[in-house]
Amino acid sequence: MSATIELKDIHWLIDMVHSIDVGIVIIDKDFNVKVWNGFMENHSGFLTAHMMDKKITDVFTSIPEDWLQQKVKSVCLLKNKAFTTWEQRPYLFKFKSYRPITSNAEFMYQNVTFLPLTDIVGVVTQICMIVHDVTDVALSKQTSQKANAKLTRLSQTDTLTQLNNQGYWRERCASEFLIYKKSGRIASMILFDIDHFKIVNDTYGHTFGDEVLKGIADVIQDNSKKEDITGRFGGEEFTSLLIDTNLEGAKLIAERLRKAIEAIHFEFQGTVVKVTASFGIAQMTDSITDHEKLIEVANLGLYIAKNNGRNQIGVSEH
């Protein structure tokens, strides 16, 4: 009677292992498969008969053998469970997502638990891997992260020109100034605005004025290094913090910008409209105590350029 109950219990256990909605894989310490349940059959396309006694890294070549060896060694040595999450490794077994209509995932994201299995004398002889499908959780978190990143970017960006807005640009400028103070890194600033922009707006309208601002923003982007910090300072005023650039280098870049802006041909109802800009430049030095002082010195150079006739570069002695 007890033997009959034991057989029934084993049958029930086997049925549960094959029916449960998680992957159950048992391997020996040489990575040979001993158990391969229904979940794994359904998602891999490999039947238990095909997988039995096969080395798992030979069948699933995307599993790094050295990495798996470290996991198995740790579990055997400590006789304790170990984990890997989808954030550490998106998947252990590369299964296609089985929800292609409701999910944007190409593959199944997985959390995997490694459990030590011991013999009757307490020696770990096998490892059980429990594979959890966490695709929904992963996609939800990724969507949230993307949304937060987009909101952060929107809060830092000038909507019209797609340059950094003044608030975020000032934050970046303050950070770079601290780096300069600690390391002596060279940086210079360009501050410029469009000459007589009010006349442009009054004559051709604000919609055309916006097109001019966007065109000049494109010129700034085209003439900036990746590490430079560009921004719309306000209205028709723009700025760029030039990393690893001294005052002479800033003059060359400002002159290149000046010529590029002067060369733009904007068009309004068949009429060509041209604009110019005036520039002020400054370099971080020991006499400049903070980033606001650097802005002030560049702004003084801008006033000098305007007072001297506009469409030129001004440098303030400080």
UniProtKB/TrEMBL annotation:
Keyword Nucleotidyltransferase: yes
Enzyme Commission number(s): 2.7.7.65
Leading EC class: transferase
Keywords from the named record: Nucleotidyltransferase, Transferase
Record's catalysed reaction(s): 2 GTP = 3',3'-c-di-GMP + 2 diphosphate
Molecular function terms, GO-annotated: diguanylate cyclase activity
Database matches in InterPro entries: Diguanylate_Cyclase, GGDEF_dom, Nucleotide_cyclase, PAS-like_dom_sf, PAS_fold, Rev_trsase/Diguanyl_cyclase
Gene3D superfamilies reported for this sequence: 3.30.70.270, PAS domain
Classification via PANTHER family: DIGUANYLATE CYCLASE DGCM-RELATED, REGULATORY COMPONENTS OF SENSORY TRANSDUCTION SYSTEM
Protein name: diguanylate cyclase
Organism: Psychromonas arctica
